[in-house]
Structure formats: C-alpha cells, structure tokens
Automatic annotation (TrEMBL):
The keyword Transcription regulation does not apply. The keyword Transport applies. It comes from the Bacteria. Keywords: Cell membrane, Ion transport, Membrane, Potassium, Potassium transport, Transmembrane, Transmembrane helix, Transport. InterPro entries: Cat_transpt, TrkH. Pfam families: TrkH. This is Trk family potassium uptake protein. GO terms for molecular function: potassium:chloride symporter activity. It is found in: Cell membrane. It is a multi-pass membrane protein.
Amino acid sequence: MEKISRFKLFDTLSKKMVWGFIILITVGTILLSLPAATNEPQGTSFINTVFTATSATCITGLTVVNTAEHWSLFGQIVILVLSEIGALGYMTFAVLLFNIIRRNLDLSTQLMVKESLNLENLSDTKSVMKYVVGLSALFQVGGACLIAVDFIPRYGWKWGLYTSVYHAVMSFCNAGFDVFGNSLMGFQDDSYLLIVTIILIIGGGLGFLVWRDLLLYHERKRLSLNSKLTLVTTGTLFVVGFVLLLVTEKDLTLLPKGTSWFNRTVNTLFLSVTPRTAGLVTLPTNDLQAGSIFLLMILMFVGGTPGSTAGGIKTTTFGVLMLQSIAQIRGKKDVEFSRRRFSQNNISRALLLIFLASVVIVIATLILTQTEHIPKGFGLEYIVFEVLSAFGTVGLSLGLTPHLTVIGKLVIMLLMFIGRVGIFTSLYSLSKRQTKFNQIRYPEENILIG
C-alpha cells in the first residue's frame, strides 16, 4: 500500500508540474501575441509565438526569429521573465509569494518544491529555497554589475545597463537569448566579458544543492555523495572537452588574424562551456570542424546538474553510468564512489533515463529527416544537432531553427518541454500506472549479451 501511495503521489505531482509549465507557456504566448511585443507591423505568427514562449520557458534559446530585431522592448522583457521563471521553477516564485504574505507552506506545496528541485528530504524544502533565491540573486546581480563595467562605457547608461542585466540573467539561467542579434560573436576579443559569462553559466548549471554543500562545507566538513559526483563529473567533462576542442579547433581560423594566445584560449574555454545548456556562442557553430560538432553533441546530451538551470541527461546520470561500466569491466558487483556504493535503484534509474532519452532522440530525428530539408554541405548531423540541442535545452543550432516546418517546430517544442520538465515527469504525467503489483517472481535465466 505504501508503494502504491508513492506512485499515486508522484503521478499527481508530475501532472501538476507539467500543467504548471503549460500554463506558463500559454501566458507567455498571449503576452508575446500582443502588438506591443513585436517590432513587425504584421505581428508574429501563432506557431512562432508559441515556439518562442516554449523556448524561453524551457530556457533553451532556440529562436525562429531574431530576438533583437523582431521583438520590442516589451517582448524582450517577457522573454526575460519567462526564462527567469522557467530556470528557477515556477514553484520558487510560488514559495516567494507565500513568504511575502507570511503563510506557511502546505504539504502539497512542499512536495511540489521537493520534486521540482530534486530534493531527497521534505525537511530540506525551506532551507534549500533560501539558497535558491539567495544564490540566484547574488549571481545575477553580481554578474550584471561586472558586465556593466564593460557595457556602460560602450553603450551608455541606459542601453548598457539593460544589456548587462539581460545578459547576466540569460547566462545564469542558461537560456541563450541575446539582444545583440548574433549572440556574442561581436565580443570574440572581449576576454573579460567571456570569462564573466563562463562563471555565470557554470554557476547556474552546477545546481543549487551543490552550491549549498559548498557554502556549508566550513561547518559540516564534508560534501554529500551527490555533490562529490557532480563536481568530479563536471570537472572531468570541462577539462576533457576543453583539451579535445584545443585539438579539433587547433587553428581557430574563425577568429580574426592576430588574435592573442590568451584570447584564443578563452574562446576555446567558452566553446567547451556553452554546450552544457547555455546556448551563447562567440563562433559560428556551422563553421566548426566536424570533430568539434560531434564533441558538442556529446556535451549537449550530458547537460548539467540535477536541480540546476541546465538540461540533458545530467552529470550525475552520466557519472553513475561510467562508474557502473568500470565496475562491470573490473568484475565488481557493487558500484562504488568515494567510499560509498550506489543503490541498485539509482543505477536502474540512470540506465532507464539514458534509454528513454535515446528513444526520444531517435524518434524525433527520424521525424525531422522526413519533414526538414538538409542543405548541401551538411549530413544527418544538421538534424541530430538540433534534436540534441532542444532535448538538452541548449539553444545551439547549425542553422536549422529558422527554417523549421510547422511539424518540425512542434517536434522541437516537445523536445524542449521534455528536456526542461524532465523525461520521467513527462512520461509519468501521461501514463496510467497500475495500482496493483504482481508479487509473483518467475525463475531466473540468463541470455547471451554482446
């Protein structure tokens, strides 16, 4: 009975979370449909409006129209607000409202927050919420101030301050929208801005639970297993990605001649960080080497950390899978890390997540191969890259997004939604679970594998 009630509870919470994001996308679509939201006299088509609202809410950054040129100041602010709410989770703002009116959180709200932030214990809800709000404000306000030092002398107080805030929010939220028209390609030689942006991207993608562990380390003198695995996996992917990109893009011919060694290194660092669901670029993605594009696909698939502003299968899932593979190769029964062993439930969940993600990506790719046109000079990577970018809520593209058909836009929107809400949450909300569990266990038998 306890197991049944858990499934029923998770089903209910999943449906609430899914509907919460759907309502948010609907509100965003209505606001972006207003004449004041666009600079175009003919307005924006319904499908493009829904696509933009979905991309913003799911903090992806894929765009079918140029954000800087098409949307007015009001429209850009709507996109900014949708990205902020989508990144922190609408439940965060619900809790803020409860605090403002000085009401205690009921059990249902606490459970929703627990699920949306991937918390282990219900008792962590209030304390973690303080860190979510506090850290988000610290990173974004601090980032905006640091960027303003660069932008205000360039653009003046009004535009400089606006672009500083916009860029800081989008970088921390890993959203990928920009108000410059070509992402950050005009700032290839601005190492200061790129370094600040890298810090904001990593800050948002590392996860609030990990940041809480790091900030409380001086008191506890220890890190949780989740934080240790996250930091090790993130650091490994960052270093390996950077080194491999130094090899695949060793010439960096996309940068102007005479670019300093330091600036070339910073641009390569940025290129290794942005596919972790940030979506901002300093180099045209479709002009990268084949090896670099393939590496970006892998990094987009992995994504960031659970409970963060990032998407993908998450670093912990990837870490568990790697450790499981190493243990199997060594003939070890237990999967161990930092003098702890993972539960079989953890391992099974990680394997199931990767399998389901692969199935979703394969199906979406097959559909798009039938509906979208692949230009000369490109192959299947033109579509696979877009699919992985949408699923990982990254926002990078080889150029397909503005040319998507209506069916293509619907597929990409669904991928962005699944990537942000979570594949388990999405499937649980759609499926009808059985309430009776079969207690019969059949005899065990092995089959040939490999």
